[in-house]
Amino acid sequence: MEDRSVEYLAFEHLVEIVRRLRKECPWDREQTFESVKSCVLEEAYEVIDALSGKGDLPEELGDLLLQPLFITAMAEEKGVFGLDKVIHHIADKLVRRHPHVFGEGKAKNAEEVLQKWASLKRQEKGAEGSHLDGVPSTAPTLLKAYRLSQKASRAGFDWPDRESVRDKCEEEWRELLESWKGSREELEEELGDLLFTLCNLARFSKIDPEQALEKACQKFSQRFRQMEKRALEQGQDLKDLSPQALDTLWNQSKS
């Protein structure tokens, strides 16, 4: 209990620091709900980097924790809501959506937990709710495609197996090729269909498409930088090289 008391005191101290900053710091006083949006995103991305070993995780978690506390402090000033409402809301939701932990319900595996969570959420939203609710409109599009297909699957709308998704990918690729000489709008539509289906292929393969694309970006970046380095060592600039020379440098960077 003593350790918990220390944690509670530390949290209360942080909350008081944030409230004082809002009152006494000129920069903090000027911030609005609109101006902190980019801060929330930036701090979330830095936590993601730290989870991958690219930063100090406790520090980055602290920076991220600051954001909801700061936003809540602004809300308190407006008389909209307070920190107690934020905490009670998430605490009540966690208990309500985990009857297999806090009630008499049972869940055999993680997938069943997710299905029950979605079912309870729809019950709370009422008849007006959709199985697709809960995917932020501002989410990165690749993540949005993954989450929408995930939610549709839990509602029973899905391909029977991974091979069926692969066949659909091949179908979408053929349609993309057929639209190649069509309008920009047609090509855009077919390209979007292919990307969405590829997200489903990733889901069936239990691969996070965001992480897969991130690794591909890192690999490309490393190889391209190696190309630049080799060209510089030869006293050349990439933009002045022929396609054949660029291809040679690319293959060298791969090896």
What this model shows, in words?
- The chain is mainly α.
- The protein has four domains: 2-96, MazG-like (Helix Hairpins, Orthogonal Bundle), CATH 1.10.287.1080; 99-129, no CATH class; 135-207, Helix Hairpins (Orthogonal Bundle); 211-254, no CATH class.
- It has helices at 2-24, 26-30, 37-51, 57-78, 83-96, 99-102, 110-125, 141-154, 162-178, 184-204, 209-233, 243-254.
- Helix 8 packs across helix 10.
- The protein is extended.
| Amino- and carboxy-terminal Cα gap | 57 Å
CATH topology of the largest domain: Helix Hairpins
Q: Count up the helices.
A: 12
> How much is the average pLDDT?
91
Describe how the helices and strands are arranged:
Elements: H1 2-24, H2 26-30, H3 37-51, H4 57-78, H5 83-96, H6 99-102, H7 110-125, H8 141-154, H9 162-178, H10 184-204, H11 209-233, H12 243-254
Helix pairs in contact: 1-4, 3-4, 8-10, 9-10, 11-12
In short:
The chain has helices spanning 2-24, 26-30, 37-51, 57-78, 83-96, 99-102, 110-125, 141-154, 162-178, 184-204, 209-233, 243-254. The protein is mainly alpha-helical. It folds into four domains: 2-96, MazG-like (Helix Hairpins); 99-129, no CATH class; 135-207, Helix Hairpins (Orthogonal Bundle), CATH 1.10.287.1080; 211-254, no CATH class.
Key terms:
single chain, 255 residues, mainly alpha, Helix Hairpins, 12 helices, 74% helix, 0% strand, extended
